[in-house]
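Journal club prep — side note

Before the paper discussion, L.F. wants everyone to see what a predicted structure for a comparable chain looks like in token form. Sequence:
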Amino acid sequence: MPQTADEPDAVAVRSWCSLALEALGREREAIDAINVYPVADGDTGTNLYLTVESAAAAVEAVFAAHETGTSVPSAADAVRAMAHGALIGARGNSGTILAQLLRGMAGVLAEGTGGDRMRLALARAAAWAREAVAHPVEGTVLTVADRAAAAAGQAAPGADTAEVARAAYEGARAALDATPGQLPALARAGVVDAGGRGLVTLLGALVEAVSGRGPERPYEAPVPFVPAGGDDTECPAGDDGDGGGPAFEVIYLLEAGDEAVERLRARLDALGDSLVVVGGDGLWNVHVHVDDAGAAVEAGVEAGRPYRIRITHFAADRAHARPEPARRAVVVVVPGDGLAALCREAGATTVLARPGEPPASGELADAVRRAHAREVVLLPNDADLRHTAAAAAEQARAQGVRVAVIPTRAAVQGIAALAVHEPDRSFDEDVVAMTSAAGATRYAELAVAERQSWTTAGICQAGDVLGLIDGDVAVIGQDVPGTARKVLDRMLAAGGELVTLVLGEDTPPSLAEALEQHVRDGHLAVDTTTYRGGHQGAPLLIGVE
């Protein structure tokens, strides 16, 4: 990578993530379409995209932490963030292996730069990925990674980073084209390995990131090979096809020590197949295909603390045994479990945005799919989720779902929009009415200052209660009740018919009673409604319609 004080350039790492995400976005559907091994579930391209999206988000977070200063993050911080982001966001068999590839590279690139370091990084990536898979199979992404590393190792002595990356890319291309001859399931389907094609895409993005221009020979899939006399009805995934493999895919993050993970590997290997365990330093990503999903999760509980558990039923996906899609649904991002329950009662599909953990576009796209409707209205309820929601909508549209994103910037705007939702009217009319209701709702929230800083309302001290109206600090107070009253007075000075109060988990109900009385005393024609928001981060959310 470009050198900066004998370290890989953090900007190049950021560029690689961005270019890889863009390239996988273009090729996602094509990669999904050739996914026949180990399970023909058509999601390898999507899983790789979501994994890289998580890696890119982690790198962006590192850069965002330096925005207030003049420096950029160190290269070591950037590559480690990339690997960690991929680890915690890995999806599916392919994404889990990719996370280990990136982890292997990051361990080397964090220590230095140049062609020799890139050779070593690619070699370690291939070795670590192979070690992470319980039963490696040739003709898969593992083979492509091996050949890429070997080609990088054969680059001319003294070759720089860009030359080594190009050699790796060309080696991966050649290996990918050969995969149908190594894996019968690919030959029967007349396709190359989907995971391997994803790795070629990533290496092409790496070439562009370190050299400033893309590969001289962009990858083009070969003409499908169909064996003479082939039976079109034969399952393209061979022995791992429909009805022949485990029923469930189980994935979770696990906090555990090395010894416990070794015991876990042995237990999961006995339970199923496609076992991949990646990570280290106490945090692991576990992926396995099993018939007994409960036993796979229980094994994780015995080993440590599993979380972000995802279980996919292959049989349901293969048979497409799903009810006829509903006409229309609403997907809502909510900051707390209390509002999530409220929105579900109103018929919406919810996505929980935990404090400091905004959902990625893949999570929003999954929610749109879970809604199982031909038309979906998406309410992000956060200005910072605007682009994320747009990306999720594009993913859903590519699958034939009509999606409208209403740019709600706060949960109270989402509540207002959901209140006027009527699935019986036309989609466009419904979107217009919901957008109008959201736009007519001013929003505010209370927060506690963590440190002294400048705000639009003056200088605040650590511990001060901040009243933010429409995203800007408008009031600086000493306590929640007094600050809330001042915020309400400012908002109602411009008029209003309905005040919505959403109380945080630790906010006493007496605050709502006092604020309702305050509104009645000063604004006779204004109604007030109160909800419990649960663990939402802010002690109080306010909406004025």
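L.F.'s comment for the group: The CA atoms of residues 419 and 434 lie 8 Å apart. Keep this in mind when we get to the figures.
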